[in-house]
Structures are given as structure tokens and as C-alpha cells.
Design goal:
Blueprint: H1 4-15, H2 22-36, H3 46-58, H4 66-75, H5 87-101, H6 106-118, H7 131-141, H8 149-162, H9 168-183, H10 192-212
Helix pairs in contact: 1-3, 1-4, 3-4, 3-7, 4-6, 4-7, 5-6, 9-10
Protein name: Metal-dependent phosphohydrolase
Organism: Segetibacter aerophilus
Length: about 210
């Protein structure tokens, strides 16, 4: 993969190539870069965004609306504060604000917002027109759960770093509860590709972390 920053900026340029508002595009990019470079981000940063884009590239032949998926990837964690319960809603609102400045079609913006807000519970709304794209996007977002054990361990350590303001007992209780909720799901992943290739490994990784909390 290219340098992470260059790779993500290239995606931004591709997504916004339709617009000739160069000054506004540069201003928006600077805000995107600023937010994903915040010091409290150890996992939810540009590396995470680049990882999702790499998965998107691998599955591009199955994605009906690459623009919606591409913008959703970029904006889904743009607001990230571990004190807030509404990061997804705030991220969706900021995406809307940015994309309106580029005159993106309102229906496209609404779809992007639906993608972003769906990361809150990782469920596809019933009857949603882009359900297949959304299912893939949601699986991209949690694909780290099905990574090799060492990669998963590094991920879990980065998540802990993002919650350093919480003492160990509080963090461990909350993390354990969240992970057990994932394990209680009939399926962690949505699409068949991810269920077949990552489900078993994800459950092993999560069970291992729960056992250490």
C-alpha cells in the first residue's frame, strides 16, 4: 500500500473529482486530516480508514455505489470522542455539512448518513436500497476482529489506549460487556464472504480477549 496519508488523500481526490471547487475541497481535506490526527486516536485514525479502503478495493466488483461507500468510509469516524455516546450521529452531520459544500446530491448524502449511523449497532435497516453495499461496509469496519491473533492483540491494545482516562476495572468491565454482546450475535459478520473467511477467527480472538479481561 502507498504511504497511508497519500493513499487516503488519493481516495479523497477520486471521490471529489466531480467538483471544481478546489479551494473548498482543500479546506475540507485539511479538516479531515486534522480530525483523524487527533492525539487521542490510536486505532480510529487514518490507518483504520486506509485499511477499510483496501478492503473496499478488494471487493469493488460487488459494490453498486462506490461513491456512497467511499464517502462513508472516510467520514464514519471523523468525530471520535470516547466521552460521547453520539459519535456516529455527529460524524454523519459533519459529513452532510462537508458534502453540501460540494453540492453532492441530497439522496446520496442521506445514504452516506445511513451508512455512518449504521456503524452504531452494525445492522442493515430493513428495506434499505443499498443493503448489499452497506453490509460490506459494516463488515469492512469490523474486519479487524477476524485478523491474525497478533494483529488482533495490537488492535485491542490500541483501543485500551483510547480509553486511558478510565481505570482498569471500569474499562475491563465495559469492554467485556461489549465483547460478550458481540459473541451473543448469531453472526458477527453480515456478508457470506466475511462469515466464511473471518467468523470463526473473530470468535476465537474475542473469546481470548474476554478471558484476559
Amino acid at each position: 500500500m502507498d504511504n497511508i496519508l497519500d493513499y487516503v488523500k488519493k481516495k479523497w481526490k477520486q471521490l471529489t473529482a466531480f467538483s471544481n471547487k478546489e479551494e473548498i475541497k482543500e479546506q475540507l481535506w485539511e479538516e479531515i486530516l486534522y480530525r483523524y490526527s487527533e492525539q487521542h486516536r490510536h486505532y480510529h485514525n487514518l490507518t483504520h480508514i486506509a485499511f477499510l479502503y483496501s478492503l473496499c478495493d478488494q471487493h469493488l466488483d460487488r459494490i453498486l455505489n462506490p461513491a456512497v461507500t467511499g464517502f462513508a468510509i472516510l467520514y464514519h469516524d471523523i468525530v471520535y470522542d470516547t466521552y460521547r455516546p453520539d459519535n456516529e450521529e455527529q460524524s454523519a452531520a459533519l459529513a452532510e455539512s462537508h458534502l453540501k459544500q460540494l453540492n453532492v446530491n441530497s439522496r446520496i448524502i442521506e445514504n452516506i448518513k445511513t451508512f455512518i449511523i449504521a456503524t452504531k449497532d452494525h445492522k442493515v435497516p430493513q428495506g434499505f436500497a443499498l443493503k448489499n453495499d452497506l453490509g460490506l461496509f459494516l463488515d469492512f469496519d469490523i474486519a479487524i476482529l477476524g485478523a491474525e491473533a497478533e494483529t488482533y492483540k495490537a488492535y485491542s491494545e490500541k483501543i485500551r489506549q483510547e480509553y486511558l482516562k478510565y481505570p482498569d476495572d471500569v474499562y475491563k468491565a465495559g469492554r467485556k460487556q461489549a465483547l460478550q454482546k458481540v459473541l451473543e450475535s448469531e453472526k458477527i459478520f453480515i456478508t457470506n464472504d466475511f462469515v466464511e473467511t473471518m467468523e470463526e477467527t473473530a470468535r476465537k480472538n474475542i473469546n481470548s480477549e474476554v478471558g484476559q479481561l
